[in-house]
Structure formats: C-alpha cells, structure tokens
Amino acid sequence: MTAVPTRQVEEAALAWIAGHRGRFALDDDALAADGRVNSTWKPLGELAQVCATLARRTPRADPLHARVHDLLAFAWRETGEGGLFLRLQRAEPFATYPLEVYAAFASAGLRHPGYEEAAATVARTRGWRLTEQDPTRSLGVLLAERTSGLRPHTTPERMLARTWLGGLPEPWTFERASGYAVTHVVFHLTDWGCGGPGVPQALAGYLADWLPAWLETCLEARMWDLACELLATAALLPAPPGAAALGGAWSRIAEAQHACGALPEDGRFEALPDGADFTHSYHSTLMAAFAAGLTADREGRPGSGAHLAPGGQGVPG
Q: Which H or E run includes 128?
C-alpha cells in the first residue's frame, strides 16, 4: 500500500511550497530584455502547472484542495491575471516560453483573451512553425497551443515520432537526459494529467515494462527529482505499474524528504536549518507533491470525484 507515504509526502511538500511561495514571485527580471527566465517564469510556471493539476485531482472537501487552489491563485496574480503574458508576447513575439507557461493557467480555466489573440496572430506565421527546438519541447509547445485555444501547427503524432520515447529505444540506453525527456513526453501527451490526446498503446506498454527498472536505478542513485517525475509518469499511464513493481519507491521518497517538507534534487540535504536552498529543492519538492497527488488520485482518494481514465483523460466519478 502507498496511501500513507503518498499522503505524507504530498502534505509535507505542499506545506513547504506554501511557506516559500514568495520565492516563486516574479521580480523585475521577469520583463527585462535579458531577464533570467529560468529563475523567474520557469518556477512560477511549474508551480502553476502542478497546482492546476492537483486542484482537479483533489476532492474539494480535502484541505489540500484549498491549499493548491490558493497557490494557483497566487501564481495567476503574479502574472497580472494574464496581462504580463501580453507584454511578454509583444517584447518577444517568437519566444515560446510565454505560451508554455500560459498553458498551465489555461488548463485551469484562467484565460486572457488579449494575449490569446496576439499569440494566435504570431502562431499563424511560418517563423513560429519553424522555431528550432528539441522534439520533446516542440511537443510541449504543440500541446500548449491546443490547451490555449490556438490552432496546433502540426500533429502530436508527427512530433512524437521525433522524440526519444517515440522511437522506442533500447531500454539500456536510458540516462538522466533521456529520463527527463520520457517524463515530459508523457506530461505533454496527458496535458499534465488534465486531458490531452493520451499515451499511445505501444508507448504505454513499453513504459509499463521498463519504467520500474529505470525508477529503481534513479532511487539507487538518489536522483529524487527524476524519480518523482517517473512516479508521476507511472500514475499517468493507462495501466500504471502496481505498488510491487515500484519497489517501495514511496517509502524511499518519504525517507529522503526533509522534516521541513523539502526534497533534494539528488543526494541528501546537509545539516542546514531549513533543509536546503530554494533553487536546489523547489522543483523536486513540486514534483514530489505532483507525483504523490496523482498517485493518490489514481489509487482513489477518499471522497474523490474524478479519476484518471486510460490515456490520461479526466472523467467524472
């Protein structure tokens, strides 16, 4: 059974995130021409995406629903309720990261018509369609278009075929970089657990066979961030691996989690008062909450009104 570890991990992680939410706030660099996107928009977008999914996967009567809803509302306010996306689009019309972050909010029903209209104009150009990115991220942009109400510039099938996972590679070629590519392909195909086209049968079968072994490798190496992403991926498959196949992974994640609720990206925290600095723990802590919430919902939270259907589609309970 994983119910106790997942609840423990999720509650502690969300408590830490709520206690550090000010660190997700946008600063002056967010709109600067040479701004640090990875330390401004990226953390805020990841917070929004995790909370958007968990808000849908957590019963309203559960106290955690109010917590993730409040965090999502905070993130939306940080964007000026969408207004900053329009300013970003005008400053960097062919940058894809504003749309990728915006899609997280759009999946929760938080929209800004002015931004969507401006983005749609740029998305009709050849320059947008020909933006050069790695295939996994391009798949994410494609699904962000779909989520944001824009016309997708190609099909998921065409983009999926170019990804590492889409080629069904030899499982022994799995490494850190390909691991993150695998998880994000599944996140994009399932709209981070909120819908999407879903995971094709061939890929789902391949992951059911090999994900447990990859997960064990990450756990042995104490790569907690990637391990949590793999656990989230497992919960998003049409037929997730059972608890036995996952080898007590949640107990090991719970043991690695600091008493304050933070989870290190890898290794273990040193004897620091608050566990670790924000930069090296926020993403893994978000992923711990995300994976734990998806797993708990998939196994059936008490009072849950929605579960993941095969392919990642949400259906009413």
A: helix 126-129
